Amino acid sequence: MNQIRINTAGGKSLLILGGTMEHIHGLLPEKGLFIITDTNVSRIYGDAFPPGEVMVIEAGEKSKTLDVAGDLCRKMLEAGADRSSFVLGFGGGVVCDIAGLTASLFMRGVRHAFVSTSLLSQVDASIGGKTGVNLGEYKNIIGTFRQPEFVLCDHSMLATLPYEEFRSGLGEMYKHAVIRDRNLFFDLSASAGQLTGRDLQILGDLILRAVKIKASVVKSDPLENGIRRILNFGHTFGHVLETHYSIPHGVAISQGMIIAAELSVWKGEMPHNEFRLLEIALEKAGLLMDCSLPSNVVSRISRDKKGEADSVRFVLLRSVGKAIVRRLHLTEIQSFVNYYNEKKLESQSQ
Question: In angstroms, what CA-CA distances link 169 with 125, 163, 228, 321?
């Protein structure tokens, strides 16, 4: 078991990596516990829940709405919750997002924490204090910054994770490596077979290294005013692809990373051989799809959380392991989108 502490002006968070439910018994209140989970996790791990009021949402992205958060707040109120209550999100990325937002909204904020059950949430979604729900086709446009008191990542829970969800988590692991740690990138690529086989020792080590990257960035910039923006690598295009093609988050982000890397080459920020290095690794991991960008991608990007006026703060690469942030005008992004889609059409017609 490893522990990492994220201490910021806005709150403190203890990350427990490779731990078990036994490691959080002393961190939970004796009464007033409200557990938010989903239908899949409840079915598999319901017997392991600590004593508390259990509220179950439908599994999947469709539950990430303000209506669901409001319904959870109403249920808490009806069950007698007050400002001393404690919310425990027990599940993957969707559960962590909705539980975190519900906790930050109920009576203007109650204590909360997570038991993270998916690879995606263990390396990314449960860590850093971002909460959020979707507004139509716009991802996480409604949300808050609020650190969970603790995050338990029991890696043995990944054994029950469907392959598609496991693969989705790999996409975010690669993202952490690509923006900050070239050695982790090569180690991820070299360990593809062991990861697919859920080798917990190797998986635990790689998760720890990925989480250390995110934790260090969050510590230095908890509210995403500067360096934390690099954690959005692949997300500007990826979020559009995710909703347009209804594909898993990590796969969409991986495709978004490749497109952002190609934009980096197009802009002269990164050499083409570095682009190919990334492309080959993500192809080998089964994380890429052959798709063009939707015709309305730029208008959707303009309303993204990263947009300001007629420009967007875009995360590009100098090389695998080194990310940079550039402000790009929407007309420039449109020019690249035209270039990218024309190139796709040519390759598909050959």
Answer: 10, 10, 20, 19
